[in-house]
Specification:
Helix 1 packs parallel to helix 5, helix 2 runs antiparallel to helix 3 and helix 2 runs antiparallel to helix 5. The chain has five helices and no strands. The mean pLDDT is about 85. The protein is mostly helical.
Amino acid sequence: MRAIRPVLDVSHLPTVTFGHRNATWWGTIGFMLIEGTTLALVAAAYLYVRKNYSAWPPERTPFPDLLIPTIQLAVMLVSLVPAYLAKRSALELNRASTALWLWVSAALGLAILALRWFELDALTTRWYTHVYGSVALAVLGFRRSLLILDVFDTLGLAFLMSTGRASAKHFPATTDNTDYWYFIMLAWIPLYILVFLSPRWI
């Protein structure tokens, strides 16, 4: 006799789900927790090294320059707007609008990466000069790796949405991408204060 297999009718379930009902959302949350821990550790390392010095930056090392990092921070905050609009369009399953705002987000992301290159000079020191340069560059370096990842993820989604190769699952992926974008951009605010402003008062 053939074994009887139980059958579950799932035809009534939605084909597209967002937020906590989607498995990739939980993956994104987990990734943010892991990367947030990494950023917290490098920030803690910066503060730990700082307490071993009477002068910070060390003597004969200028304070970090503020122009490029501040411009970059402003562009990051502006980028939250198209990211939000991309998420809203994805929730509406509007492919054209989602593609448009993803391209705008990606363009701003590339601009941020370009500014990040010049930001290294804003430190006014090098990693091999002393421990201050090493730990400050570590904060910038870890943050940059996360930014590169998200910018290229956004570019990929924009390409899929624009060429018609996107499937229904890419709309929730876009909302998850926006949540991660929020995390990456807003996480920079305390790190910006730590690396570029705090040497002036701690």
